[in-house]
Amino acid sequence: FFGPLLLGRLFDTWGRKPMIASTYALSGLLLGGTALLFVHGALTAATQTLAWTVVFFFASAAASSAYLTVSESFPLEVRALAIALFYALGTALGGIGAPWLFGTLIGTGDPGAIGWGYAAGAALMLFAAAAELWLGIAAERRALEDVARPLSCVDEDSPIAM
Fold it and tell me: Which domain holds residue 33?
């Protein structure tokens, strides 16, 4: 909750592309560090909760901005469908796949197995940061129609224009 609330303004002032990439990258690096500390038994319940709180501070801002980016990347006519599709896929992966995976890893009783699960999550966040740097759209302070033209828009010099 506090990540998007406190970092949200920077997405328009510093830029969405660098903020999305940096929040995903920072989340991935922090989760990777948490995984190492966990595997080596260096965390108590309180310090692990604190570490996760810091990770989720940045990860929640990253995830919120990802949905915002999806809404800006598609033309008006298909924007709602694109948001619904990406939300459904994200919910399926995070809401179904992750609990099953971590339930299985916890069931092994091996902290190393759980550490690999954290490392996989960290790698996915770092991949998301790289994907944003490669594919992301600089949409801050631009009209949505300038970012993704509506499908109904016709150029004046087009042979179809009247």
Answer: 2-147
Condensed to tens digits (0 to 9), the pLDDT of residues 21-55 reads 999 999 999 999 999 999 999 999 999 999 999 99
- Distance, CA of 61 to CA of 43 (rounded, Å): 25
The answer to whether 137 and 17 are in contact (CB under 8 A) is: yes
Length of the chain: 162
DSSP 157: T
8-28 b/e with 16+ CB inside 10 Å = b?
A: eebbeeebbbbbbbbbbbbbb
Predicted pLDDT of residue 11: 75
139 within domain boundaries = yes
Q: Find the CATH number of the domain harbouring 139.
A: 1.20.1250.20
Question: Is position 153 within any domain?
Answer: no
161 lies in some domain: no
Contacts 24+ apart (CB under 8 A), 148-154: 148/72, 148/73, 148/74, 148/75, 148/76, 148/79, 149/75, 150/75, 150/76, 150/77, 151/75, 151/76, 151/77, 151/78, 152/77
**Model confidence, pTM:** 0.81
Q: Looking at residue 155, what is its pLDDT?
A: 66
pLDDT at 74 over 90: no
